[in-house]
Amino acid sequence: MGFKLTKAEIDRRDEIVAELREKYADVEKAVDEFNNEVARMKGPIADAINAYNEKVETARGFCEDIASTREGEFDDKSENWQESERGQSVQEWISEWEGADCSEIEEIEINEIEAPESSIADDLEALPTEAEA
User: How many domains does one find in the chain?
Assistant: First the structure.
């Protein structure tokens, strides 16, 4: 008696291979659906970020205008006033406006995914059906 698969075992292997391929196709389909949804959602997110960043630019300009205008007013004051407690307080206030954090939101990375590789069906199908004599 040789070591080999019976007809029933070969049929069972082929059935398992077919089921594996079917289930893997389901995985690929689910990944495709996910990636399609990701692609669909990227647009509104990018649009929202761009709109926000435009307002950040407005805020940055406002802060710069306030700081610049007040710096000019500060410079017009006497040196004694500038060095006074009030002058130092105003200089700190101007510095806060100059240093206001008006950072834009960076684009959010939303990546598509790839279906995991699977060769189990191919590997199973490629296994020998009998031992060599």
Answer: 1
Domain of residue 87, residue span: 7-105
Q: Is residue 117 part of a domain?
A: no
Rounded to an integer, what distance in angstroms lies between the CA atom of residue 30 and that of residue 22? 13
Does any domain span residue 124? no
Q: Is residue 116 included in any domain, yes or no? A: no
For residue 84, count other CB atoms closer than 10 A to its CB: 13
The pLDDT, as a whole number, for residue 117 is: 86
Q: Is the pTM of this model over 0.70?
A: no
For residue 27, what pLDDT is reported? 94
Three-class SS state of 130: strand
The torsion defined by the Cα of 81, 87, 91 and 94, in degrees rounded to 10, comes to -100
Residue 11 lies in a domain: yes
Confidence of residue 34 (pLDDT cuts 50, 70, 90): very high
For residue 132, count CB atoms less than 10 angstroms from its CB and return exposed for 0-12, middle for 13-18, buried for 19 or more: exposed
In contact, 52 and 102? CB cutoff 8 Å? no
Terminal CA-to-CA distance of the chain, rounded, Å?
Answer: 11
- In whole angstroms, give the CA distance from residue 52 to residue 48: 6
